[in-house]
UniProtKB/TrEMBL annotation:
InterPro entries: KAP_P-loop, NTPase_KAP_P-loop, P-loop_NTPase. It comes from the Bacteria. Gene3D superfamilies: P-loop containing nucleotide triphosphate hydrolases. This is NTPase protein. SUPFAM superfamilies: P-loop containing nucleoside triphosphate hydrolases. It comes from Streptococcus varani. Residues 19-298 form the KAP NTPase domain. It holds the Pfam family KAP_NTPase.
């Protein structure tokens, strides 16, 4: 079953905040008028849903009107936002005696006041006190205009008083103000204050305080500091109401959504910290819109991969990867860049061990790399990674293994289709020449035929106990390296190690690419943070072509001898002197 969460505002309370919704509704019913309330919150936090639920909770004797500013900000209509608002407001009031002539006169008056007034004058504002005075002076100056703002407000009050039925008050909900250019949002707030500050009216606005401050600065100059911006906000907004995200019953919302997706291990009702909940909260957090996007992406992947038949752990891993993609995009892209399967640009396929170290060491940068882009997210990712390891059944203090990393990468390859602009990690067809040469070299370095070269269909599928072992005795007694490992996946690379840990670890890398070339340098690093790194170049480019190495035994023997010579350069004495 396909499960999707639309981005439509919720008419019903799904987050356990009924007392806040009902409280705000009762306040609106009882407050003195005129009054303006600001519903504040980040995008996707539920401002529109709260306004719709408050609307449903209001008594029948209250007239309500919804106005969405977003639609008027499109198609170059934002400069006519004030006029559009007035016209739609009057139409929705359903006033008595609404003749065509009366409507035409109102439309003309609105246009006269707004397009000839506010649009063309630069109003000096001090703490929001002088707006009305300056606009009044301006219109009185226009001798050919026989309507004043006072007359406008009087007619507007007459329309409100003549509204069909005996409504106690009119509540006007204005949504998406924080999606407007901040300067336009300020202009609409000024219109509300000047023209609609009438008895029996309550305005409920979806807008954030910071949008108001930015808009005031944009319109009236940088010298209009934050204190003056706060004074302006307080003048327009009498009651701020912040979306109560901290009181959202987000655990219940997530669990209900996951249950729809077919998870069978989301915990009991008393278990508020199930692994799926922890994955989500430690990554994308509690924003309902972000959670809905996560559920939609995961649902799509389940359909693509036929997840109905998969176990709960496989589903959890897909969920975890989508959490990673959505919240830690730069870290996710860095991991994919490190993976670099089949690069044609001469980059070698990194070892699985290097990828594991990236994860285990919280993506610690090389000494010359710029860490600024990732620094803000790394600590949060570290917490998320612990829950990811839990999905992979890795004990808290244990390091991820190659097999577990393989499971992770398989899930990444599937889930990458729902990422936004992330790197592609699809693999090209394996290069059989490269696979053959690397395995032939691996056998020589081990001192015995560990891998059959007559069975190419098995290349890239070798288990770990075949892919890793001690170097042959002739090399072992003369080098700092103790073991060699064939990398997983296509198996184009060899990793040499002294089998030590942390600061005493020494590693070397010989790498090939899907393009059939050996990387020109043998790369080595020392210590868990790679405090010492070096490259030893091969003497001849002709030795680096996999097809020639496979076809010409003489060329291959020269290549093998050079590899052994480089390995022997890493003697114990050299290792000790470079520490």
């Amino acid at each position: 079953m396909v499960i999707t969460k639309t981005d439509r505002p919720a008419d019903k309370d799904l987050l356990g905040i009924e007392k806040y919704v009902n409280g705000l509704a009762r306040f609106i019913e009882k407050c003195d008028t005129p009054l303006t309330i600001a519903v504040q919150g980040d995008w996707g936090s539920g401002k529109t849903s709260i306004m719709k639920q408050v609307n449903s909770a209001l008594g029948k004797d209250i007239k309500t009107i919804f106005f969405n500013t977003w639609q008027y900000s499109q198609f170059n209509m934002s400069e006519e936002l004030g006029l559009s608002f007035i016209i739609e407001f009057i139409e929705k009031l359903e006033q008595r005696g609404n003749s065509a002539n009366r409507k035409k006169r109102w439309n003309f008056l609105s246009w006269d006041l707004l397009s000839k007034g506010i649009k063309y004058i630069d109003l000096p504002v001090i703490n929001g006190e002088k707006i009305s005075e300056d606009i009044s002076s301006y219109f009185e100056y226009l001798s050919n205009r026989n309507k004043t703002i006072k007359e406008f407000k009087k007619e507007f009050n007459d329309i409100i008083n003549n509204t069909r039925g005996k409504h106690d008050r009119i509540v006007i909900f204005i949504d998406d103000l924080d999606r407007l250019v901040p300067e336009r949002a300020i202009e609409l707030l000024e219109i509300l204050k000047l023209f609609f500050d009438c008895e029996r009216c309550v305005f409920v606005l979806a807008i954030d305080y910071d949008v108001v401050v930015r808009g005031v600065k944009s319109k009236y100059g940088e010298d209009f500091d934050r204190d003056k911006g706060r004074a302006f906000f307080d003048k327009i907004i009498q009651v701020p109401f912040t979306v109560p995200t901290a009181s959202y019953n987000i655990n219940s919302y997530i669990k209900d959504s996951l249950k729809e997706l077919g998870f069978d291990g989301t915990g009991s009702e008393a278990d508020s910290a199930s692994i799926e909940v922890n994955l989500i909260k430690s990554s994308i957090g509690t924003n309902p819109r972000s959670i809905n996007r996560l559920i939609n992406s995961t649902s799509l992947l389940f359909e693509v991969d036929g997840m109905d038949s998969k176990d709960n752990r496989e589903k959890q891993l897909i969920l975890a990867i989508v959490c990673w993609q959505l919240e830690f995009e730069q870290i996710y892209n860095r991991f994919l860049s490190a993976y670099e399967v089949g690069s044609e640009a001469g980059e070698y396929e990194p070892t699985f061990d290097k990828l594991i170290n990236l994860l285990e060491n919280n993506f610690k940068m090389e000494k010359d790399e710029d860490n600024s882009l990732l620094s803000n997210d790394l600590m949060r990712f570290k917490r998320f990674y612990q829950y990811l390891k839990e999905v992979l059944n890795i004990e808290k203090n244990n390091k991820m293994t190659e097999e577990e990393l393989g499971d992770l990468i398989r899930s990444i390859k599937l889930s990458n289709i729902v990422s936004t602009g992330n790197a592609d990690i699809s693999e090209s067809c394996p290069n059989l020449d490269m696979q053959y040469v690397i395995r032939k070299l691996y056998n020589s370095l081990r001192g015995e035929d560990i891998i059959s070269l007559d069975n190419p269909e098995s290349f890239g599928k070798e288990p770990l106990d075949i892919r890793k072992g001690s170097l042959g005795k002739d090399i072992l007694n003369k080098s700092a390296f103790r073991s060699v490992r064939l990398t997983r996946g296509s198996g184009y690379s060899l990793v040499f190690s002294n089998d030590a840990s942390d600061e005493d670890r020494l590693e070397g890398y010989l790498a090939g690419t899907s393009g059939g070339k050996i990387v020109k340098e043998f790369t080595s690093s020392q210590g868990i943070n790679e405090k010492i790194s070096a490259k030893k170049s091969f003497s001849s480019d002709i030795c680096l072509d996999a097809q020639k190495l496979r076809d010409d035994e003489g060329i291959y023997r020269a290549f093998e001898e050079e590899v052994i010579r480089i390995i022997l350069d890493y003697r114990y004495q050299l290792f000790e002197t470079t520490r």
